[in-house]
Write a structure and sequence with these properties.
It is built from 13 helices and eleven strands. It is of the alpha/beta class and about 375 residues long. The chain has two domains: about 15-180 and about 215-240, NAD(P)-binding Rossmann-like Domain (Rossmann fold, 3-Layer(aba) Sandwich), CATH 3.40.50; about 185-210 and about 245-300 and about 315-364, no CATH class. The protein has a seven-stranded parallel beta sheet with strand order 3-2-1-4-5-6-10, sandwiched between helices. Strand 1 (about 20-25), helix 1 and strand 2 (about 45-50) form a beta-alpha-beta unit. Helix 5 (about 185-195) crosses helix 8 (about 245-260). The longest helix is centred in the N-terminal third of the chain and has 21 residues, at about 95-115. The radius of gyration is 20 Å and the shape is globular.
Length: about 375
């Protein structure tokens, strides 16, 4: 569904926010942007991540694992809310996905309950729907996982729902793929090829509609969930852009911004899918099976519930979000090159290794 988005200011009612908030996965894409917004609003933030983070006024950092109860107890002591945004990526091994997403979520919620935290916001994913046949997909659509990542996200949500049923004030947010400042992952390939003056391939005609989300809008949704009345917060919400077009349009806007006059190029679907699947199974490509399917069919969710109950009003279109990511990428290229040389690619904020796909550049 494509709609016009009015010029809506960001959520800025800091008086309604909890005074002390802990954020897991604070060095991730969402974590970085959320922590910055919270600190700037005057909120006291406890930031937990496996990667060390520098502290600053209003921000206390903790280096630790979400599966470590002692680390969580230290970070959660005395806080008024927890935002659980730490997760695995679909490219991780099945064992790591299960351990981080399911076991990690359980440990986080147990620690929050032990610390008597009044409000928890759990960041899930629209991956819980698998490959839905209904678009826009509503929150009550059946959960149909199709791979280890989506299966783990479903199990983590079931854990969250159990804690909610036992009395925890817990909101579940299901964002679409989000972009913006600090976002890289697979988009690094599009940005590299655009900057180098290459055409960019798309499966089939590229006319499928794929909803994304600006990370600033996702931060707005988190803040709304943190400050909502209990009867509103104790629910599950899809979070996505209100304005979006086709994959061809989204990719083309990056090529146009690069300024080399290059175009999105259609690739025959069947042979391309077969090659991508083979490369993925051989671990020679970061394009996993579920992503291949998402590139071939419309993928968007209903955000009516988040709009009507939570007050969510996304400000960014797909185009806005992807160009914000591209602008940030251009300003950080040298750091990305250094990161690639030192084994980056474990988070959505790192450039992922393109594997065999990097060799395909010569044809474009």
């Amino acid at each position: 569904m494509v709609t016009d988005t009015p010029d809506i200011p960001p959520y800025e009612d800091s008086s309604a926010l909890p005074a002390r908030i802990a954020v897991t996965g604070a060095a991730g894409v969402l974590g970085i942007n959320l922590v910055d917004r919270l600190v700037s609003s005057g909120t006291e933030v406890r930031a937990l991540d496996l990667r060390p983070m520098p502290g600053r006024p209003g921000l206390t950092t903790y280096t630790g694992d979400i599966r470590d109860p002692a680390a969580l107890a230290q970070a959660f002591r005395g806080v008024d809310a927890v935002v659980h945004s730490a997760s695995a990526l679909p490219s991780y091994s099945a064992a790591d996905i299960r351990s981080i997403v399911i076991d990690g979520t359980t440990t986080v919620l147990e620690a929050a309950r032990a610390a008597a935290v009044p409000r928890v916001v759990h960041i899930s994913s629209t991956a819980v729907y698998g490959l839905p046949r209904m678009v826009p997909t509503p929150e009550d659509y059946p959960k149909k996982p199709v791979d280890p990542y989506s299966a783990a996200k479903v199990e983590a949500e079931r854990t969250a729902e159990r804690f909610r049923a036992e009395g925890m004030s817990l909101a579940v947010l299901r964002p679409k793929t989000f972009l913006g400042t600090a976002r890289m992952g697979l988009f690094d390939m599009l940005f590299q090829w655009a900057e180098e003056g290459r055409h960019f391939p798309v499966l089939g005609k590229g006319d499928v509609r794929s909803q994304m989300l600006g990370v600033d809008d996702l931060v707005d949704a988190v803040l709304l969930a943190l400050s909502a009345p209990d009867e509103v917060a104790r629910d599950t919400y899809n979070i996505g852009a209100a304005e979006f077009g086709t994959l061809r349009e989204d990719f083309q806007c990056v090529l146009d911004t690069a300024g080399h006059g290059k175009r999105v190029v259609s690739m025959p679907s069947r042979p391309a899918v077969a090659v991508l699947r083979a490369l993925s199974r051989a671990r020679l490509s970061p394009v996993y099976d579920r992503l291949v399917h998402k590139l071939l069919a419309d993928s968007y969710v209903s955000i009516d519930k988040a709009r009507d109950k939570l007050g969510f009003r996304p400000r960014m279109s797909n185009r806005d979000a992807i160009l914000q990511s591209y602008d940030w990428w251009r300003a950080q290229r040298e750091a990305f090159a250094a990161g690639a040389a030192t084994g980056a690619g474990r988070t959505s904020g790192d450039p992922w290794r393109q594997g065999a796909l990097a060799l395909a550049k010569v044809f474009f």
